[in-house]
Amino acid sequence: MIEPFIVRAAILEDADAIRALFAEVDDLHRVQVPWLFQKPPTEPRSSEFFEHLLANQESKVFVADTGTELVGVATALMRSAPDFALFIHQSWGVLDNIAVSRERRRRGVGAALMREAEHWVRARGANWIELGVYEFNRDARSFYEALGYAPVLTKLRKPL
Predict the structure, then answer these.
(1) What's the pLDDT tens digit per position in 47-68?
(2) Please, which of 26, 36, 60, 64 could form a disulfide with 72 given CB 3.0 to 4.6 Å?
(3) Given the DSSP bridges, would you call strands 129-131 and 91-100 parallel, antiparallel or unpaired?
(4) Does domain 6-146 have CATH number 3.90.930.1?
């Protein structure tokens, strides 16, 4: 039986468990996009990194907690349009990162984290929420599309 979970705001004491969740995603990206991602010599998400995220009014970290372990994490950020006459003055959210433990995928954890991030962004007056997903990650793309996300921009690259 799968343990129930709650989604709550992260606290600094969650940092080690969050690092472990992100390590799975980091490994996937290193394998699939080795020309962009590498294994860093030290932990890239220091305590100071988490302190900044948790203290910043423009960011929020959510965790899925079973009471005995963290099984998911999502980071949401707020952004604003540049001060340039062409742009409509507005703000939006960015789902910067999401990770769900391999054993808990397809069990509602990711969707619950996404709903909480969307709620937080909406409560701050954002007009939309966006995220990036690499082309190789078809499972993630299908997950996001099932939640109503749709492509807006295609970024192309040419190796030189």
Answers:
(1) 999 999 999 999 999 999 999 9
(2) 64
(3) parallel
(4) no
